[in-house]
Specification:
By secondary structure, the chain is an alpha+beta fold. It has 2 domains: about 90 residues, Ribosomal Protein S4 Delta 41, Chain A, domain 1 (Orthogonal Bundle); about 90 residues, Roll (Structural Genomics Hypothetical 15.5 Kd Protein In mrcA-pckA Intergenic Region, Chain A). The chain is about 40% helix and about 10% strand. The longest helix has 16 residues.
Length: about 200
């Protein structure tokens, strides 16, 4: 299954806020006058499915990528759900989003694909690149690259940079300190339900 490229507000109406997908706001369907929220009983399968979809749409993953990360997390030490989220948070496109360099993860992916980003002075054009502790992120020294990022940085004031990252607004240079802690992960999700959803496939 390919990466989702359709209407983003439609997705957050159904699944809730997904800051990595879009920074748009919306009025939920149940908030309209005379309309009450649905009372139909929701199955456990649907609950797990929706949590999995939150993960996919927030981080911009294909189904194959999601399954790959779950398999890696299962082989690692510690809680599978927590390791899964840490793996996704350390992707380059997410690091750029969380640093305020890009307003959303899709826009961060575009910056990487167009070769505007350097990691330890090496050009990286793979959005899924796995960042590690002490990695230094810089913006390519080109007028177009610099102007695009400075334009995006206005969104930085709207969010807190997690404690595992640091970004110098003047020199446009970021640093990854360590693996992110669970408390600093912005997505509201029950990662254990995601692991349960994939349990029969891994």
């Amino acid at each position: 299954m390919s990466r989702y490229r359709g209407p983003r507000v439609k997705i957050i109406r159904r699944l809730g806020a997904l800051p990595g997908l879009t920074n748009k706001t919306f009025k939920s369907k149940s908030s309209y006058i005379g309309q009450s929220p649905a009372t139909k009983k929701i199955s456990q399968y649907r609950i797990r499915l929706e949590e999995k979809q939150k993960l996919r749409f927030h981080y911009g993953l294909t189904e194959r990528q999601s399954l790959k990360y779950v398999r890696i997390a299962r082989k690692a030490k510690g809680s599978t759900g927590q390791v899964l989220l840490q793996l996704l948070e350390m992707r380059l496109d997410n690091i750029l989003f969380r640093s305020g360099i890009a307003p959303t993860i899709p826009s961060a992916r575009q910056l990487v694909n167009h070769r505007h980003i350097l990691i330890n002075n090496n050009t990286i054009n793979i959005p899924s690149y796995d960042c590690r502790s002490r990695d230094i992120i810089t913006i390519k020294d080109r007028p177009k690259s610099q102007s695009m990022v400075r334009k995006n940085l206005k969104f930085l004031q709207k969010q807190k940079i997690p404690n595992h990252l640091n970004f110098d607004l003047i020199h446009l240079k970021g640093l990854v300190h360590q693996i992110i802690d669970r408390e600093w992960i912005s997505l509201k999700i029950n990662e254990l339900l995601v692991v349960e959803y994939y349990s029969r496939r891994v």
